[in-house]
Amino acid sequence: MFIAASLAPAAAPTDSLLSTLRAFTRALGTRRSLQAELEQALSSFLTSTPSALSTGSDVLAAPSDSLEADAPSAQPNGAAGRSTCASEALRPPSEEELQEVLRIGFAGLVEIKEEVKVLQAAVERRWERADLARIVRRIEGWESERIRATLERDQLRRLQSLQPELDFDSSIAEKNALRDSLARQIQEEVQEVHAEIAELAAAEEESGGGALANGQ
Questions:
Q1: Is residue 213 part of a domain?
Q2: How many domains does the chain divide into?
Q3: pTM of the predicted structure, to 2 decimals
């Protein structure tokens, strides 16, 4: 398995509310890419099957069952080039390789969490949009719950691979159901952010067009 670590994420732009929200959605896209790569690496390790080239599939766009599939999916907008780890598997990873993927991936998730804290503070204090800050806070809370559920599920998956005589299926299914429920809640809130971005972008374009007309 080939693992490539990118440079640390650039400082999030906060020169306007629009750029701050766009930076937030880019951070979400990168997080989803990392989660998909971690999922792919662990699944390949546990099933001893090669995994396809990681493309940073959006784990929130599909139910948990589809994450076990090897078919690649589209890169989320804004995530290209920012993923902290990328894996290309010609064979299942060894234990050491898996640990390296997990180390890089979780370090990236921590970086993203810190970046989002900065963005949330800018939304609330600099741009004085407490309503949007609450949305960001809810998204981050559910993201943390989802990551926790994923870790608990993956512990069960590893136990299942080590003790195949025991039945972990119902517990794994329960964790997957929780992950999918949280994903739906996150996606609903993310749509609110996208709607705000669209409104701000339209207002900015209209303002720019008006200024150009006045200049003529």
A1: no
A2: 1
A3: 0.78
